[in-house]
Write a structure and sequence with these properties.
The complex is a heterodimer of chains A (215) and B (243). Chain A is α/β, with parallel strands linked by helices and 215 residues long. Chain A has 5 helices and 13 strands. Chain A has a single domain (5-211), classed as Glutaconate Coenzyme A-transferase (3-Layer(aba) Sandwich). Chain A has a 10-stranded mixed sheet with strand order 4-3-2-1-5-8-10-11-12-13, sandwiched between helices. Chain A has a 3-stranded mixed sheet with strand order 7-6-9, with no helix packed on it. Chain B has a single domain (9-115, 149-217), classed as Glutaconate Coenzyme A-transferase. Chain B is globular and about 50 Å long. The chains are: A alpha/beta (215), B alpha/beta (243).
Chain lengths: 215, 243
Amino acid sequence: MPWTRDEMAARAAKELKDGYYVNLGIGIPTLVANYIPPDVRVTLQSENGMLGMGPFPYEGEADPDLINAGKQTITELSSSCYFSSADSFAMIRGGHIDLSILGAMQVAGNGDLANWMVPGKMVKGMGGAMDLVAGVKRVVVVMEHVEKSGAPKLVNACSLPLTGKGVVDLVITDLGVFDVGRGKHPLRLIELATGVTVEEVKAKTEAPFEAALAA
Amino acid sequence: MVTKTRATAAEALEGLLFDGMTIMAGGFGLCGIPENLIAAIRASGVKDLTVVSNNCGVDDFGLGILLAGGQIRKMISSYVGENKLFEQLYLSGDLELEFNPQGTLAERIRAGGAGIPAFYTKTGVGTLVAEGKEVREFDGELYVMERGLTADLSIVKAWKGDAEGNLVYRKTARNFNPMMATAGKVTVAEVEELVDVGRLDPDHIHTPGIYVDRILQGVHAKRIERVTTRPRETEGAAAGEEV
């Protein structure tokens, strides 16, 4: 059985380490916050200017001055702090954030990432994605393995305009987990979802990869 | 004696607006936007504007009302996904659009206000964003040159301010406002509360008054784009009981 969105988020949460500062993207990455292990303390950064993001507010307690990068209302923690967008991206670009978890349209075997634009369709903008992948120490992509049409998203070369070149470290899909290597080694399949076979993954992946599954 | 304080947004903009000008507007989504000054710009009818702002409001609020008024010729933004009218105007060719990565946009404005004409960043190297721009290697890594950005007018929103123009922002409503305050040839600030000089702790001021030319106290609807809440825990759940 392929992983559900929540199972993918739970797998991504295993990438969190104690003391990490982390930026979570919109969609499945947001769900990762629900699976932070109890013995791990991470600080969530919101690129609109906050460290120490708390949970959504209770009904009736939403504060218009307190939102996340997805424009949803959130809350603060006793440890939170606020800063400007320039300071926020100094943290991001300057390599002070340990981990960024974000979605993708395409990832290439060399770590190229496309997740902001489909030519011919209305372009909404890249927001902070290009800064995040350029500056954060480790970039983890969480995405469905194939498009709705069945087309592979893990490709030889991205056909869509890039968000960043050679920036992805790890890809988690509903079928398994890939270590990208970024020049150090070829793309490796390192984990499979329960009941999924290497053959099935091969059939649904355009990029060549080697299977390096733990016994 | 020069006074920075104005009674209304219209008064605060008097003599500052002209067709074809560039305006920077603070805010992230609808959070921390100078809604009174935007409304006054709408009412003025000024047109052919280039607007620098991270987003472009929603259809009937924030900068969206300037789009509806046909007043914006070009937007410089990082994300405009919340606005249907934007899409129509863009696809029909009535609106120019320049996308900047959010951090690059923030830094361009910061640099502009700080007298820095250009800087190098690794954001966007190897993407459409770097096309036509100088790319240079430093310490074995590639960086793209981006230009500092200034405007004829910056409009910003703060929580509290005083007659000196000192500003304090609240929570994530700070966002782009502090940098924009520095990058306008003229900067107009609207605040929720204009307090007497001396009431703001000098150590807690976010924007020093030197950057602010005019200031007004506004009335703020502070609309929320996406109210997202969680259910209250039952007493059992709050005590850690499995439910």
